[in-house]
Amino acid sequence: MLNRHHRGRSRRIPLRLAWGLLAVWILAGIAQADDQTVTQARLSLLPGDMPGAGYFELHNGGDAPVTLVGASSDAFKSVALHRSMSRDGMASMHAVPRIEIAPGETLEFAPKGYHLMFMKRSRSLSVGDKVEVTLEFAGEKALPVMFDVVSPVSM
Ligand SMILES: [Cu+2]
Predict the structure, then answer these.
(1) Domain boundary assignment for the chain
(2) What is the 3-state secondary structure of 78-105?
(3) Which value, to the nearest 10 degrees, does the dihedral of the CA atoms of residues 66, 83, 121, 144 take?
């Protein structure tokens, strides 16, 4: 009896240590998710129900590569990663399934290059509004970003 009581007490300290380590691990995980920063997030709105284009700069401040795999927003039925290209003077764009960003690298989404294509708005929007867009990364990581709705710019 005395022996069991003693064992029970000695087990309590490692358990507390384990919870402490778990807390540190969770906090480290959150900090890692914050290593990606987005600046200059703007959504160029075209008239009517034409698709909008999203531009921003995404910096990977972490020490591991991250892979952008998509985006979503409550304000649009679909959001896709696109890239504009110009070949023989002909402009075109195509869907991009994933974009890897190396540690320390900044990826620019800008006119005539990468952009988010916002299709079929689910509510009316006007210049000056703010729209939340969630950037989705491989490994179920998500980063919510506020985009400023701006006047059309050339794509
Ligand atoms: Cu596009």
Answers:
(1) 1-33, 36-150
(2) EEEEEEEEEECCEEEEEECCCEEECCCC
(3) 20
* pTM, 2 dp: 0.75
Fold of 36-150: Immunoglobulin-like (2.60.40)
Bridge-based pairing of strands 36-44 and 141-150 is parallel
- In the chain, count H helices and then E strands: 1, 10
How does residue 30 score in pLDDT terms, banded at 50, 70 and 90? very low
Q: How far is it, in rounded angstroms, from Cα 13 to Cα 155?
A: 61
Which residues are found with C-beta within 5 Å of the ion, ligand 1? 82, 93, 117
Asked whether 41 and 133 are in contact (CB, 8 A), the reply is: yes
pLDDT at residue 32 is higher than 50: no
- Output the CA 43–ligand 1 centroid distance in Å: 12
